[in-house]
């Protein structure tokens, strides 16, 4: 049977791992939010490009300079960007699902350790 001290050390390790995982989940949400904003912006650009005539001048901002760009090329670039962002969002969702499953497992481990520690402490009122 494990001592209270050993259980306390295990609890601290698992709680620390849970805390790190929760920070990683928050970071994932932040990155996902940025990609979602970029996706919306690019979809808006895509709709605007669809409204243009084929002979319309299109310019791309490269650093401080506007460079003339072919409309077909501009549409292709925006479509590629949207495809890339969509793929990244799918990947982030998949990673998030895995992290949330790990989080649930770690929470259960922490709760069980806390219960074991409480059960080993004499004289404590059990509710």
UniProtKB/TrEMBL annotation:
CDD domains: Prefoldin_6. Keywords: Chaperone. Signal peptide: none annotated. Pfam families: Prefoldin_2 (PF01920). GO terms for molecular function: protein-folding chaperone binding; unfolded protein binding. The keyword Chaperone applies. GO terms for biological process: chaperone-mediated protein complex assembly; protein folding; response to cold. Belongs to the prefoldin subunit beta family. This is Prefoldin subunit 6.
